[in-house]
From TrEMBL:
<feature type="transmembrane region" description="Helical">
    <location>
        <begin position="60"/>
        <end position="85"/>
    </location>
</feature>
<dbReference type="GO" id="GO:0055085">
    <property type="term" value="P:transmembrane transport"/>
</dbReference>
<feature type="transmembrane region" description="Helical">
    <location>
        <begin position="125"/>
        <end position="149"/>
    </location>
</feature>
<feature type="transmembrane region" description="Helical">
    <location>
        <begin position="92"/>
        <end position="113"/>
    </location>
</feature>
<keyword id="KW-0472">Membrane</keyword>
<comment type="similarity">
    <text>Belongs to the auxin efflux carrier (TC 2.A.69) family.</text>
</comment>
<dbReference type="InterPro" id="IPR038770">
    <property type="entry name" value="Na+/solute_symporter_sf"/>
</dbReference>
<feature type="transmembrane region" description="Helical">
    <location>
        <begin position="161"/>
        <end position="180"/>
    </location>
</feature>
<protein>
    <submittedName>
        <fullName>AEC family transporter</fullName>
    </submittedName>
</protein>
<feature type="transmembrane region" description="Helical">
    <location>
        <begin position="33"/>
        <end position="54"/>
    </location>
</feature>
<dbReference type="Pfam" id="PF03547">
    <property type="entry name" value="Mem_trans"/>
</dbReference>
<feature type="transmembrane region" description="Helical">
    <location>
        <begin position="192"/>
        <end position="213"/>
    </location>
</feature>
<feature type="transmembrane region" description="Helical">
    <location>
        <begin position="277"/>
        <end position="297"/>
    </location>
</feature>
<dbReference type="InterPro" id="IPR004776">
    <property type="entry name" value="Mem_transp_PIN-like"/>
</dbReference>
<keyword id="KW-0813">Transport</keyword>
<keyword id="KW-0812">Transmembrane</keyword>
<feature type="transmembrane region" description="Helical">
    <location>
        <begin position="6"/>
        <end position="26"/>
    </location>
</feature>
Length: 302
C-alpha cells in the first residue's frame, strides 16, 4: 500500500490536466505555459532549496553515476533493437534519447517521498541534476543534430546551459553552501518549489495525447520497456555483482533510473522534426506503464 499513495497522486494530477483539456476548460497548447512556469520558477526554487540543504555523499554520487551509465546503456540497447527492426534513422535517434533520460524530477519526487519522506527531496534533485539535466543538456543537441541537417554549435549549447534557470539554481545552491543563509528566506522559495510536482504533472496531463500510438506502437514499446525495466534491472545486476548493499540511497537511485521518458526529451524531438509520434507515445504510455513497473521494482527491492 505504501507505493499506492504516490502513484494515486500522480494519476489524479495527470488525469486532472487531461480531463481539463477534454472538457475545454484549458487548451492543450496551454500546457507549454505551465511547463515554462515550472521550469523558470518552481523547479529552480526546488533545486536551490534541495541542493543547499543536501549533505553531499560520495557513495550517493557513485550510485547516481552508475544510474546514468545504465540509462545510457538502456538507450543504446533500444537503438540496437531499432536498427534490427530497420526503423528509420530519425526513429532510432529518437529511441536513444527517449530511452536514456527519464522524468526523474516530476515523477521521481512523489514516488520517492511516498516511499521514504521529504528529507529525500534533495537527493532526488541531486540525481536529476547529475544523471538527467546536465548530461541531457550536453548530449541532446549533438544527438538530435545527427537526425537532421542542423549544424552543431558548441558555444551556443554552452550558452543555453549557462542561462538555463535550473542550472543557475543548481550552481547557486552549491555556492551558497559555503555561507549560512537565514532560514526566513526559504519561506517563499519552498512555497514555489512545493508547487513543482502539481504544476508539472497537471501540465503533462494537459498535453497528453494517445492517437499517435497507432503508427509508433513497436518503437514506443521498445522505448518504454528499455527505460522502465531494462535500465533498472541492469542497475540491480551491477550492484549485485559488486555486492553493494541495497539501502535507501541505492533503492532511490534504482527507482530514479526507472522513471518513464523525460517530457523535455519528447519536446525537443518534436521540435527537431524527428519521430514526433514516437515521442508523444513514449511519454503518454511510459507514464501509464510506470504504474506497473514501479510496484514491480518495489516488490524486488523492498
Amino acid at each position: 500500500m505504501f507505493i499506492f499513495n504516490p502513484l494515486f497522486t500522480i494519476f489524479v494530477l495527470l488525469m486532472g490536466g487531461y480531463i481539463a483539456k477534454l472538457v475545454g476548460v484549458l487548451k492543450q497548447k496551454q500546457s507549454r505555459t505551465l511547463l515554462d512556469f515550472a521550469i523558470t520558477f518552481t523547479i529552480p526554487c526546488l533545486i536551490f532549496d534541495g541542493i543547499y540543504h543536501l549533505n553531499l555523499d560520495w557513495t550517493l554520487t557513485l550510485l547516481i553515476l552508475t544510474g546514468l551509465t545504465c540509462s545510457l546503456l538502456g538507450g543504446f540497447i533500444a537503438m540496437v533493437i531499432g536498427y534490427f527492426f530497420r526503423f528509420s534513422r530519425a526513429t532510432i535517434i529518437s529511441m536513444f534519447l527517449l530511452s536514456s533520460f527519464g522524468n526523474t524530477l516530476f515523477i521521481g519526487i512523489p514516488i520517492v517521498v511516498g516511499i521514504y519522506d521529504t528529507s529525500f527531496i534533495g537527493k532526488v534533485v541531486f540525481y536529476d541534476a547529475l544523471a538527467t539535466a546536465l548530461p541531457f543538456s550536453l548530449l541532446a543537441p549533438f544527438i538530435l543534430s545527427l537526425g537532421g541537417n542542423q549544424p552543431i554549435s558548441f558555444l551556443q549549447n554552452i550558452k543555453r546551459i549557462l542561462i538555463f534557470p535550473p542550472f543557475i539554481a543548481l550552481t547557486l545552491g552549491f555556492l551558497c553552501k559555503f555561507v549560512e543563509l537565514p532560514d526566513f528566506i526559504f519561506g517563499p522559495i519552498r512555497a514555489l518549489g512545493g508547487a513543482t510536482t502539481a504544476v508539472a504533472l497537471f501540465a503533462i496531463g494537459l498535453g497528453l495525447g494517445f492517437g499517435a500510438i497507432k503508427s509508433a506502437y513497436k518503437s514506443a514499446t521498445i522505448v518504454i520497456l528499455c527505460k522502465t525495466l531494462v535500465t533498472p534491472l541492469l542497475f540491480i545486476g551491477i550492484l549485485k555483482l559488486l555486492n553493494v548493499e541495497f539501502g535507501p540511497n541505492s533503492i532511490l537511485a534504482i527507482l530514479e533510473s526507472s522513471m518513464p521518458t523525460m517530457a523535455l526529451a519528447g519536446a525537443m524531438i518534436i521540435k527537431a522534426k524527428l519521430d514526433s509520434n514516437l515521442a508523444v507515445s513514449s511519454i503518454a504510455f511510459g507514464i501509464l506503464f510506470s504504474f506497473v513497473s514501479v510496484p514491480f521494482l518495489c516488490y524486488l527491492l523492498l
